[in-house]
Amino acid sequence: MKFLLVFDFDHTIVDENSDTWIVKCAPGKRLPHGLRNSYQPGHWTEYMGRVFVYLGDSGVKEEEMRRTMTTIPFTAGMGDLLRFIGENKELFDCIIVSDSNTVFIDWILKAADFHKVFDEVFTNPAAFSSTGYLTVQNFHAHHCPKCPKNLCKRKVLKEFVDKQLERGVSYIQVVYIGDGGNDLCPVMSLKKNDIAMPRHGYTLEKRISQLSQDRSPVECSVLVWSTAVEIASYLKLLIKE
User: Fold this and answer.
1) Residue 193: which CATH number?
2) What is the tens place of the pLDDT at every residue in 183-237?
3) The domain containing residue 201 runs over which residues?
4) Which residues bind substrate (predicted)?
């Protein structure tokens, strides 16, 4: 019997948004006004596709992107937390479910030597084309009205847990660690024994709080965190019990 740790990536593992961090590679470290304003709600992946075309057209190469992405800061205490999880892999399965992309997450985790901590990473597939442009695709199709069209994190989590059950792996508890609005859908699917860990001051915490005020609270326990030190403290308590 193991615990399942589910991490978001942007503003959770790293302290920034990886998709906006890449803009540091753009000429003048900013995007043209028209491109910046072309985002439509729920269509972030398509927007990032246009950003990558602009970077490619501006002559930004893969190596420069990689160099820039590996300077993104981790959230306070996250390095120690990931090392702790890595040392206790017999107790923890650990996955990332993120609206970033495979290239960015891979670069960042490998540069910091954290890639072995995670059993699987679920995020938008990205690759460099033969012309050297970064391209990104939607993670999957789904019918959830609450989520952006490229990714329903609840669907990802359910499919992962179901697949693990088929392999004979069941979890004592799911611990979901995130910050954003798109983390609410999976959190609402958590059971009484599970725990949601929203980051203090971010959208997920505000949405969970709003649900409680509307008298439709989430079923799981909620523990707010500001730094990864608090997450590590909770996990250490878990394995002592």
Assistant:
1) 3.40.50.1000
2) 999 999 999 999 999 999 999 999 999 998 887 789 999 999 999 999 999 999 9
3) 2-15+74-123+150-239
4) 19, 99
10 is catalytic: yes
User: Do the domain assignments include residue 32?
Assistant: no
Q: Would you say 19 is a known binding-site residue?
A: yes
Residue 119 marked ligand-binding: no
162 catalytic residue (yes or no):
no
Number of domain units in the chain: 1
Q: Which of 8, 93, 183, 194 is catalytic?
A: 8
User: Is 63 exposed, middle or buried (CB count within 10 Å of its CB: 0-12, 13-18, 19+)?
Assistant: exposed
Q: Is the pTM of this model over 0.85?
A: yes
